[in-house]
Amino acid sequence: MQRQQRVVAIHDISCFGRCSLTVALPIISSAGIECSVIPTAVLSTHTGGFTGFTYRDLTEDITPIVDHWKTLDLRFDGIYTGFLGSFEQIDIVSDTFDRLRDEGTLIVVDPVMADNGRLYSIFPENFPTGMRKICSKADVIIPNITEACLLLGEKYVEGPYTKEYIEGLLRKLSAMGPKKVILTGVFFDTEKLGAAAYDAETDRTDYAFRDCIPGYYHGTGDVFGSATVTALISGKSLAEANRIAVNFTVDSILRTRDAKTDIRFGVDFESGIPKLLRALGIRR
Ligand code: PXL
């Protein structure tokens, strides 16, 4: 039997609203992967569309958690990070990569900081510079197009995009360090939306598209990132992981749209877990 895989997810925990750790934990665990966590902050809800949310920064807790773990001789097959609670956490998380990784550890960074051409208002202007630093240490990064432009210091461009533009972004992002890049929010026309997966080792880009669903659904980046990490740690190729994650995310959005759920409450990914496991080749 194969040894059980172990991932550490380093994100905030938004107690309500299905994003970050409340998404990463169930999705990664569902595939039989052990999921440890380092919470970067505790919020009553995420910050997208709610007012009056609580916010407890856990920057000071990260290093002591890792110090303790260093006494336990733990090894991790993956480190997956997304929303960071403060600028100072960037250096701490970068240091955490070095302390927890070994030659077999896959580091996946989702540089959560922006969407629709704008840096999230909670982050300082210099946040992209810090994110660039931890992206350069990653094996795989998963930015959306806004985040890609911020990482590269380029002006945000509205779509539809051309293949040349998208593949240019992918190559430039990969030149920052990560061998593999998945770019989300890619569209060449208004009908189809999806993600592009680039592997610098083969210089190949694979696309996965589904019909575009109008509207903005919260937490979908984390659903996508968590499914990608789950598929990669389960042994799927980058192109397969991208396709699995696009389908899982779009199916979750469709269920949520049909249920007419408040879009701030996140998407119904839970009902899609059996299908995700079948796509991963895990039969129950
Ligand atoms: O989905 C990314 C995310 C994670 N955590 C918090 C957020 C967001 C996006 O807005 O607010 C707290």
Q: How many separate domains?
A: 1
Following the backbone from N to C, one meets helices and strands in this order, namely: EHEEHEHEEEHEHHEEEHHH
Predict the CATH topology.
Answer: UDP-N-acetylmuramoyl-L-alanine:D-glutamate ligase
* CATH architecture verdict: 3-Layer(aba) Sandwich
Please tell me how large the radius of gyration is. Answer: 18 Å
Read across the widest sheet, the strand sequence of neighbours is: 3-2-1-4-5-8-9-10-11
The strand count comes to 11
Précis, in short:
The chain is of the alpha/beta class.
Topology of helices and strands:
Layout lengths: L5 E11 L4 H10 L3 E12 L9 E3 L1 H12 L7 E4 L6 H13 L5 E4 L4 E2 L2 E2 L7 H10 L3 E2 L3 H8 L10 H13 L4 E7 L5 E8 L4 E8 L8 H14 L4 H22 L13 H7 L5
Parallel strand pairs: 1-2, 1-4, 4-5, 5-8, 8-9
Antiparallel strand pairs: 2-3, 6-7, 9-10, 10-11
Bound molecules: 3-hydroxy-5-(hydroxymethyl)-2-methylisonicotinaldehyde.
Outline the structure in words.
With 284 residues, the chain is α/β, with parallel strands linked by helices. Helix content is 38%, strand content 22%. Strand 6 and strand 7 form a beta hairpin. The radius of gyration is 18 Å and the shape is globular. The two termini are 16 Å apart. It binds 3-hydroxy-5-(hydroxymethyl)-2-methylisonicotinaldehyde (PXL). The site of 3-hydroxy-5-(hydroxymethyl)-2-methylisonicotinaldehyde has 14 residues, from strand 1 and helix 7.
Keywords:
284 residues, alpha/beta, UDP-N-acetylmuramoyl-L-alanine:D-glutamate ligase, nine-stranded mixed beta sheet, two-stranded antiparallel sheet, 9 helices, 38% helix, binds 3-hydroxy-5-(hydroxymethyl)-2-methylisonicotinaldehyde
